[in-house]
Amino acid sequence: MRYILFFIVIIFSCARSFAAFSVLVPTPASPLIYQVNGPTITLTLTCVGDGVFDEPIEYFDFSALDTSIYFDVANNTCAAPLLAGNSCTLDITPKPAATLPVLTTIPIMYRSDTDDFPVPLNMEFAILQVGDAWQGGTIYEISQAPNANATGTTVIPNVSNGPWDLNNCINFTGGGQNNWVMPTMSQLNTIWPLSNCNAGVVGGFSCASNVFYWSSEQLLPPPPTNDGSVYIQVKNFGRNCNGADKNIHSHQTPCVRTF
After folding, report:
1. pLDDT attached to residue 199
2. What SS3 state is found at 175?
């Protein structure tokens, strides 16, 4: 199953520094993620004036979107002039088996009364699927509801090797992200069938029989120890077996994050 990440970047310019201008603001706001061959996305464009002249959008050019090999456009109600405060809509549907490079920019060109030339409302698309590298990790699950942001989870198998410490993930900033956590045993068990140790697309795991990965969960009920340690649940990916070891011993620390 493939998913598309939809960004909108508003870029505008005005040759006359003293002139007012209007811009197009899209709804839903970016990012919007939707499934290839999934539901149609209704994009709403609103003309936002500057509060002084509030001039209309006097020109539209949808040719880049209309001729896209990735999407079908229908029910386009956007026509000039679009007055400040007014909106128009168009339906965008992914074409069957559409494939996109990581970032494909498709502009909608428009011009307000005080712009000397058309300016782009840029839309950037990217395919996302299990196994893709994304924001520092590898996607191992992704889901999406119609007209809603998708949710997914990425994993980095080997952030560190050492004693168990949740802060190794909490303080991790891989991919420029700061919401990494140590996975639960349930998450590790979900990742294993997709991992390289099972000929899957989520790579980076050691398949050696003596390499274990920490989870975030203590073994309950806790076995007694005489050194102040606690037992933490671990997983071996090479043999797909679960176990537990003292938190003072050294194992691989994986980290996961949602997006």
Report:
1. 96
2. helix
Strands 41-48 and 87-94: antiparallel
| 100 contacts 126 by C-beta, under 8 angstroms | yes
pLDDT of residue 17: 33
**Rounded-to-integer distance, Cα 196 and Cα 212, Å:** 15
**Each residue's pLDDT tens digit, 27-77:** 876 545 544 445 677 888 999 987 677 889 999 999 998 998 878 899 999
User: What residue ranges do the domains of the chain occupy?
Assistant: 3-128, 137-258
Structure tokens at 113: 């009364």
Please determine whether the domains at 3-128 and 137-258 fall in the same fold group of CATH: no
Topology, domain 3-128: Immunoglobulin-like (2.60.40)
- For residue 2, pLDDT over 70 is answered with no
pLDDT category, 190, cuts 50, 70, 90? very high
* CATH code 3.10.100 for 137-258: yes
Side-chain half-sphere of 184: how many Cα atoms within 13 Å?
A: 4
User: What share of the chain has pLDDT > 90, as a percent?
Assistant: 56
CB proximity list for 171: less than 8 A, separation 6 or greater: none
What's the rounded Cα separation, in Å, for the pair 172 and 170?
Answer: 6
How far is the C-alpha of 137 from the C-alpha of 181, rounded, in Å?
12
Q: E-assigned strands of the chain? A: 3-10, 23-27, 32-35, 41-48, 57-61, 71-74, 87-94, 104-112, 119-128, 133-134, 137-143, 151-162, 213-218, 231-236, 241-246, 251-258
pLDDT digits (tens, 9 = 90+) for 61-117: 999 989 988 788 999 999 999 999 999 999 888 777 656 655 578 889 999 876 678
